Amino acid sequence: LKFSPDKVDTMVVQAIGLLDELDKELNTYAMRVREWYGWHFPEMGKIVTENVPYAKVVKLMGMRTNCVSCDFSSILDEETEQELKEAVQISMGTEISDDD
User: Which positions fall inside the NOSIC domain (predicted)?
Assistant: First the structure.
């Protein structure tokens, strides 16, 4: 067996390509979650700007009516959590069902 630097370079290039593809896929899914959930609670998009915390909040909260009773301290800072709970009280979003 021989060590071939060309093969190592190829593997590095392929790994970088894979990371780029994964990044694009994650961004696509994050934008889809923001678009779909934005119909229900549009104000949240301006309050929670990062994709990962946004998805975690959606998963924990479910329906926006559950927002007040949820503890987001493991996801959001205290100020953002308070802003989110205030925004849910005056949200202009549409109602959704469990099937949505």
Answer: 11-63
